[in-house]
Automatic annotation (TrEMBL):
Record-level GO cellular component terms: actin filament; myofibril; perinuclear region of cytoplasm
Pfam families the record matches: Cofilin_ADF (PF00241)
Chain segments annotated as transmembrane: none
Subcellular location: Cytoplasm, Cytoskeleton; Cytoplasm, Perinuclear region
Protein name: Twinfilin-2
SMART domains: ADF (SM00102)
ADF-H domain sequence ranges: 148-284
Lineage: Eukaryota, Metazoa, Chordata, Craniata, Vertebrata
Record-linked InterPro entries: ADF-H (IPR002108), ADF-H/Gelsolin-like_dom_sf (IPR029006), Twinfilin (IPR028458)
Similarity-based family: Belongs to the actin-binding proteins ADF family. Twinfilin subfamily.
Keyword set includes Zinc: no
Bias-annotated ranges (Gly residues): 311-320
Broad class of the protein's primary localization: cytoplasm
Keyword check for Plastid: no
Native species: Cyprinus carpio
């Protein structure tokens, strides 16, 4: 059910005259389900200097009211006015001059971002800063391409890669320091295939180099396998983007500077995938033989006879 408030004739006429701009403030009260004129003030100084002096004394903690306050600015219809609805459950600080200015600032500010939007904004800032100082650009006559981000390898990480190249260790785990923009060594614990699932973190990405020792077709092999572990969406968007962007440049540096031939590059989201059978099939994929179609038997050698035309019988099976 709606309550209809009637505007008194006195207030209606007063509002009509107020359009000329002679008044600064008009207070409207509710009396017997009618809107009546409460108070009226004429301008003395600029709108902001008159604001608190005129408005705050009219705020009754026990009675709601409406206030029309004239600004000094104009538009096509004349002076611009503020409409203020005062209720006793509000604080005067909400409608004072500073409260009004805070309201204007909040209205002109960008809309608040969600957590995901804030994260994307941080990624764009970080990515732009990193690309300026770290990204190499390859230029050809037709286009430019960014070859990925290049975070530098720290000394311990380089030493570990050299040891792997010399077959003195068989496992390396690396991580990105996204704040310092570098690649750090996590550890080089001796690792067997059965240990690999335990080496994969559940909540953060990692780079792994594993020396896969095995036999294939009677030959003993030591194959370097690169594993990029990314545990789904349990890590931040920023981490996913940076790890993905740095991967190719890291592999280029490893193969170029440490002469490590990477036999297989894997991307996983869980350590449960890393079994003996899985690694073997990835390093030595099965070759699928193509099934040969049956050849059509050839006809007898020699010259074929002339083609013969055989006439069919009539509708009743008789000769024509």
């Amino acid at each position: 059910m709606f309550l209809v408030l009637v505007v008194t004739e006195e207030l209606r006429e007063f509002l009509a005259r107020a359009r000329s701009g002679a008044g600064r403030l008009i207070q409207v009260l509710i009396r017997d389900e009618q809107l009546v004129l409460g108070a009226y003030r004429e301008p003395r100084q600029s709108w902001d200097k008159d604001y608190d002096h005129f408005l705050l004394p009219l705020l009754d903690p026990n009675e709601p009211c409406y206030i029309l306050y004239r600004m000094d600015t104009k538009n096509a219809q004349g002076y611009e006015w503020l409409f203020i609805s005062w209720s006793p459950d509000q604080s005067p600080e909400d409608v004072c001059l500073q409260g009004y200015l805070r309201h204007v600032t909040s209205c002109s500010a960008p809309a608040p971002l969600t957590a995901a939007e804030q994260e994307l904004q941080r990624i764009k800032i970080t990515e732009g800063r990193v690309k300026q100082v770290k990204t190499e650009i390859t230029v050809d006559p037709k286009h430019q391409t960014l070859q990925g981000l290049a975070f530098p390898l720290q000394a311990e990480a380089k030493r570990a890669l050299q040891q792997l190249a010399e077959r003195r260790i068989n496992y390396i785990q690396l991580k990105l320091d996204t704040e310092k923009e570098r690649i750090d060594l996590v550890h080089t614990s001796p690792t067997e295939i059965r240990d690999l699932p335990c080496r994969i973190p559940l909540d953060t990405p990692r780079y792994h180099f594993f020396l896969y020792k095995h036999s294939h077709e009677g030959d003993y092999l030591e194959s370097v396998v690169f594993i990029y572990s990314m545990p789904g969406y349990s890590c931040s968007i920023k981490e996913r983007m940076l790890y993905s962007s740095c991967k190719s440049r890291l592999l280029e540096e490893v193969e170029r500077d440490f002469y490590l031939e990477v036999a297989k590059k894997l991307e996983i989201d869980s350590g449960e995938e890393l079994t003996e059978e899985y690694l073997y099939d990835e390093v030595h994929p099965k070759q699928h033989a193509h099934k040969q179609a049956f050849a059509k038997p050839r006809g007898p050698a020699g010259k074929r006879g002339n083609k013969r035309i055989i006439k069919g019988g009539g509708e009743n099976g008789g000769n024509s």
